[in-house]
Every structure is written in structure tokens, then in C-alpha cells.
Design brief:
alpha/beta, 8-stranded mixed beta sheet, 7-stranded parallel beta sheet, 21 strands
Amino acid sequence: MKDFLKFTFATVTGIIISSVILFVLSIVTLFGILSTSDTETVVKKNSVMVLDLNGTLVERTQEDALGILSQLVNDDSNTYGLDDILSSIKKAKENEDIKGIYLQASSLSCSYASLQEIRNALLDFKESGKFIIAYGDGYTQGLYYLSSVADKIMLNPQGMIEWRGLASSPIFYKDLLQKLGVEMQIFKVGTYKSAVEPFTSTEMSPANREQVTAFIQSIWGQITTGVSASRNLTVDSLNAYADRMLMFYPAEASVKTGLADTLVYRNDVRNYLKKLVKIGEDDKLSMLSLNDMINVKKNTPKDKSGNIVAVYYASGEITDHPSSAASEDGIVGTKVIQDLRKLKDDDDIKAVVLRVNSPGGSAFASEQIWHAVKELKSKKPVIVSMGDYAASGGYYISCIADTIVAEPTTLTGSIGIFGMIPNLKGLTDKIGLTYDVVKTNKFADFGTLMRPFNNDEKVLLQMMIAQGYDTFVSRCAEGRGMTKEGIEKIAEGRVWTGEAAKELGLVDVLGGIDKALEIAVGKAGIDSYTVIPYPQKKDFLSSLLDSQPTNYVESQLIKSNLGEYYQQFGLLKNIKEQSMIQARIPFDLNMK
């Protein structure tokens, strides 16, 4: 027994010591990776920038301590910042030693507005006379749209090009909720305000079908027009190829139709690139990844004027307070207001580009941010640059800006609000819970989930929604210099593409963040300036101290299993934390 205890103690001690050593080694390795990531990249002659797109695109990346630790074990998940990609393409254009860009298309989770912005940056890059070569084992439709700008599109002999058109397929939960005994009580203004439909219907309403048809046709028109110009194919031919579903045909069919130029295996692409940069097959090809390009020094000299043009990133769902579960990587009203006030009071900041990529959220928080943007505008020019979405609450916080810039494929508008409160009486009846109340006044138990709203309560809620909608319309009318009647004709919760919104007066200029910066500089009347992004990114140590492992496990494990349905799950899971009145578009507007 004594020997057994001695052996057991030695084993446990060994495990503890080994774990400590492994932990220390992991931290040392991690800090080693971080220190090298900040080292300036030296660009060798005849280099090629590699844009390997396989992961998820966000507006800009943040230091994620737990995420970096996870990637040490599993490097399959990549997150790219749109800001990093755009700046890297610009640096590649300006650097004489970088001869071209190699696009390696795999799978990128993002919307078409972001793809369009990257595509336009690549078209600008081509004006330098440098080459762009694209290769894919299989092209997703979005990445084919992006890659179509290339001088040569290469496809694996056993690969395929997804080219089939766009579809939007919302999921409806009404019958499921009914079986559970849950009733969603809806209060809204806006015929086209379809965010509540998945919880109250089993199919699209005629109005929703009308708006979805209009915006996916508009986006598809942008895609086919762009590919048509780059590949010298007619739009009619591209639609005919989509109807054939060429991805199920041998790869040779993609070459015959002109969608691809040649069939080649991945290993042979490097030799082709060597020929383009005019080095021998036995010579080493210098290839710069996105991480390398991030640390390439810009050619532009350092500005000494002290003038700053701020780019403030407002991305994600709009929430009231940081305690909201949905606000981990979203737009928190209280924080944004504080940040904008600092930008207003900083005399070195001569103009602000407000980069909005949001489907909306809390109507109350949207109103508070609107007021903060208005105050900021009273001191200096404010230009909004819209990303994938700037709709409902996202449009609310944008409408007061001096100028609104959007991509043609941006989804915006959706001027309308709603309230959605569950009634759990059916569920409690099923599981045997009962409810009783003692109260001093008529509405003392208002808002309980254990019973449906009565008529008086419904009247109050609908009155509140109507007042909120009237305020929203008034804000849009003031910001856009239109009458309330004019806004109401294009409001009603309807979603528009940036292309349509410009025709309606909801957007001023079509373009990306560079166009917004150009306008901001012009309105500020400055020649020399430095562009600085806000809010400031957290460093690794701050991220590590702020990280909550439970939130990380949820966001990674649950999100990876639920995929596109994670957002709907989040809405149901956190419904008690949601603001009662919402100004947002549906979760399911992503198109395939």
C-alpha cells in the first residue's frame, strides 16, 4: 500500500510538472509568434503577394488571445480583416519589388459588398500593369466573382466552378414554437419589416417576397455585369451557364465556356508564377502572405501636419449596454457615444469616416448613436461608408451624416421597427407550471412571459412602436433633406441595395471606404493628413485578461455546429436581454 501511494504521488506530481512546463512553453511560443508578427517585412525583388482566401472575413481583426491559442492546435480557421486586405493590395501596387498577386481561392465566408470592395481594389491594382493570377481546386460563386478580375483563371483538372445564381432561403420556426407552446407576440410598423416572419409565419409574405426578389436580382446584376466585363462574356451567356450548373460537368466545360482559362494542378502554379516574374525554375520564389503584407512598410512618407482623418468602425448588432450577450463584438450604444464624443473634442481630427456594417438592433441605442453622430457633425465632416449591411438601425445611425457612400451590393434602408415578446403560457401548461399574481395597479405585472398581453397592453405597445417609427422617419427626413412623406414612401421596413438606395436618395455616392476617405478629405479642406482607425485595437495582453473562456467555447463550438442558424439561436437564447423595441433586418438575408 505504501509503494502504491508513493507511485501514485510520483505520477500525479509528474503530470502537474509536465502540465506547467507545457503551459510555459506554449506561452513562450505564443509570445514568440506575436513578436515576429510585429517585425517589419523586408520585400525581396521579384516577389508575389499571395491572397489565400480560406476562412471568414470581418471588417477588421482584433487580437484574440484564446483564438490564437486555439490556432496553435488547429490552424484550419482563418479570420481576415477587410482593412488588412485592402491596405495590402494598395501596398502591393505601390511596391516596385512586388510583381503581381496570386489569388488562391478556397472558401470565404462573407457578403457580396465586401467582395465587391476587394474586387474594385484588385481592378485598381491592375492599373499598375502588374499581373493577377487566380487558382482554385474549386471556386465558390463569391470567390469566382472576385477571381474573375485575374489575367488568368486556373482550375484544377478535377475541380469545379460554382456558378448558379443567387437564392435566399429563410427558415421558419412558427410550427416548431407552436409545438413547444411558445407564441411570439408581434408589434411592428412597416409592411416590409420581415425580421419577425420566421417566428410568426411558415412562408414569405408577398411583400417580403417582393423585396427579396428585387434585391437579389440587383446583386446578381452587379455580379454578372462585373464578370461579363472581366471575362468578355455576355450577361445572357453567364445566365445560361448558371442554368446549366456547370459545376457538375467535367472541368473542361468551364474552360470551353470561358469561365476558366486553363486546367492545372496546384503544384504547377508556382512554376508559372516564376515565369511571370522571370526567374528560373530552380530559383526560389519569394511569396508574401497577407500577414507578411500587413507588416510591409508603406511607401508614403510620414505626415507631419498633425491632421488626422479618423475611420471609426461600427460593426455588428446594435445593443444598449455592454452587459448584453450579443454585444461582445457588436455596436454597444454607450461605448460608441463615448468614443464619438472624444473624436468630436479632439481638434487634431479634421474629419471622420464612420464605417457602418450593421443589420441594426436596439432602436433606443440607435437613437442615442444618431444624436452622437449629429453632435460630431456639428464640429467636423462626417462621411458614412457602408459595408455589407447598413440597414434599419444601421441606417438610423448613418442617415444624419454629411455624405453616405455605399457599395452597389450593400443592403440598406429597412426603415421600420418592431417589438417581439414571447408568451410562454402554452409551454408552462405543457410542463405543468402554473402562474398567479397579486398586484397593486392595473399594469403592475406588465411584461410577464407567463401569459399573453391583454388588449390594453397591446394598444400601449403598438402606440410605442408607432411613436418610434415616426421618430425614425423624422430622423431620416432631417438627415437626407427630404419630407417625412417622401421617406415614408420608401420606408415601411423595405430593404434596398446600395444601387437602388442611391436612386431613391437614401445614399449619395457608390463606392468603398477609399471613396469615403476621399470625400472626407475634400470636405475637411486639408492636403496633408494621417488616417487613423478607431476604436483602438486591444493588444494581446488586454485581450487575454478580458477573455472569458465560457464565451469563447460557446462562440466557437456552438457556432461551428449551428453554422448559419447560430444567430437565430442567439436571438432565442438571449431574448430576455434584447431591447424591447428593435430596428433591424432579418438574420437570414445571406444569399447563396
